[in-house]
Amino acid sequence: MAKFKGAIIVDIDRCKGCELCVGACPHDVIGMATEVNIKGYKYAFMAHPESCVGCANCAVVCPDGVITVYRKKIEN
Fold first, then answer.
1. How many other CB atoms sit within 10 Å of the CB of residue 68?
2. What are the helix (H) ranges across 1-76?
3. Architecture of domain 3-74
4. Taking residues 55-59, what's their average pLDDT?
5. Which of 16, 49, 60, 63 is buried deepest, with most CB atoms within 10 A?
6. Cβ proximity of 48 and 6 under 8 Å
7. CA nearest neighbour of 43 among 7, 71, 15
8. What single DSSP character describes residue 38?
């Protein structure tokens, strides 16, 4: 089975801090920032980027579509 390395980009200024992505991530990659964005919400970010496999569960459940997922195949 192929292995993948993933990464996510969160549009911080549009994130409402609903935390749905945190619960949807099977590898506990996403955390919530202690700072707030321009609208006053805590926003999602990659707390543990080394664990991301690019499954895109976070992007699928995001109600505002602020998460972009990148995925790269790792050569063995």
1. 14
2. 20-24, 57-61
3. 2-Layer Sandwich (3.30)
4. 97
5. 16
6. no
7. 15
8. T
Q: For 5-55, how does the pLDDT look when each residue is reduced to its tens digit (9 = 90+)?
A: 999 999 999 999 999 999 999 999 999 999 999 999 999 999 999 999 999
Residue with tokens 């569960």: 57
Amino acid at 47: A
CA angle 1, 31, 19 (to 5 degrees): 100
Rounded Cα distance between 55 and 53, Å, is: 6
Provide the pLDDT for residue 1. 65
Question: Could you tell me the pTM of the whole model?
Answer: 0.89
Domain positions in the chain are: 3-74
Residues 6+ apart with CB under 8 A from 28: 47, 48, 51
| Tokens 């292995």 belong to residue | 3
| Helix, strand and coil in the chain, % to nearest 5 | 15, 35, 45
Which amino acid does the sequence have at 66?
V
